Amino acid sequence: MSTRSLGLSDAVYDYLLQHSLREPELLTVLREETASHPRHAMQISPEQGQLMGLLVELIGARRAIEVGVFTGYSALRVALSLPPDGRLLACDVSDEYTQIARRYFAAAGVAEKVELVIAPAAETLAARLAAGEAGSYDFAFIDADKPGYDTYYEACLELLRPGGLVVIDNVLWEGQVADPTDQEASTLAIRALNQKIHRDARVTQSMLPVGDGLTLARKR
Ligand code: CA
Predict the structure, then answer these.
(1) Is the pLDDT of residue 1 over 60?
(2) Helix, strand or coil, per DSSP, at residue 77
(3) Domains in the chain, number
(4) How many A from CA of 144 to the centre of ligand 1?
(5) Cα of 172 to ligand 1 centre, how many Å?
(6) What percent of the chain has pLDDT over 70?
């Protein structure tokens, strides 16, 4: 996990932030609050958040999904980039972490846009599919438990419209995916999904060395 893009020197990373990052003040405050959290490495990097906001705008997303909210940095980025009538289905299992997220959604004036569901995301997404919502979402961000990634990818792909975008976090897993001696369950799960998406004819895809590795997959 990484709260900044992999492989850049400090000087180049600082330059990148100084010359491209536009971070609303509330997001800066949230990032600083989360930095003192014991699991702070779960937070995405600010340049990744900005890219996600741009992607949401680029595809004109109105309905979005997030699997793995944590303290809400990426959800808030996405919610701020959605149009006023946009909606984000935010899935997480932790009431404790998402209390922080709720506080920031309210402070940013986007609480109405975010439907936070505290339950296993596989169940939440399956319920939406059962309710006939297949093909009705524009954007999905997957950033939760890695053994669940394949299930989340399949469900999100079904929920997206053709031309919708699924974004998957931690696909380089601090480089551990490229270390064949690493046989940890999370590493195996990410490796398997990376391999699958590479060959997946249902999507147009690209793996970016942004943050901890980010795959973009556009549903055909
Ligand atoms: Ca992550």
Answers:
(1) no
(2) helix
(3) 1
(4) 7
(5) 10
(6) 98
